[in-house]
Amino acid sequence: MPPAPKTRERIVQASLQLFNAQGERSVTTNHIAAHLQISPGNLYYHFRNKQAIIAELFAEYESRVDVFLRRPERALTVDDKTFYLEAALAAMWHYRFLHRDLEHLLETDAALAERYRQFAQRCLTHVQAIYAGFVEAGILRMTPAQVEALSLNAWIMMTSWVRFLCTVRGASAELDEDLMRRGIYQVLALEGGYLTPAAQGALDRLYDRLFVPLGRVLGQE
To answer: Does this model's pTM top 0.70?
Structure first.
């Protein structure tokens, strides 16, 4: 059997679970300690406050995105588009509280806000390089200015999707992977006018796989 996770790791895992389920603002360090059946003092031995736990979770998220959001040193294919979208979906889902509570988190932690700004700038640089790679591969037909605009629009869509769901479904509504998948579909839809005929068939199949009806998104089904 694998060794049991250490207390610090258990605190991080439990915090992520509670933040995702209840929202970061609804969870205190006492809630986390009670969930783990440890004393608050034991928790504070590892993390001085809740912001320190959030910083640790953001570091995990940042590292995960940095690993996959890279343009490979070869020609890109439609399969790469699937990879990027699915990797983004998985990261969004696993750390969904960060997207749902992002504005509040950055307002209350100046260090995290600065770190997030650097992360966002880095991501936008990589996204532009990836889209440029799809242009070079003949999958998209775009000018450099259109690549820049699409990169920014895709970033805005990805980072605001969870908050949009909370506004239309209610802040306490449960989110699931279907709802997150529609967010990825929306990003893909931004690219529709730039697809080359050679890539259309493969992208249509990806559209079909990611589509979730709007009524489901709005909580009408």
So the answer is: yes
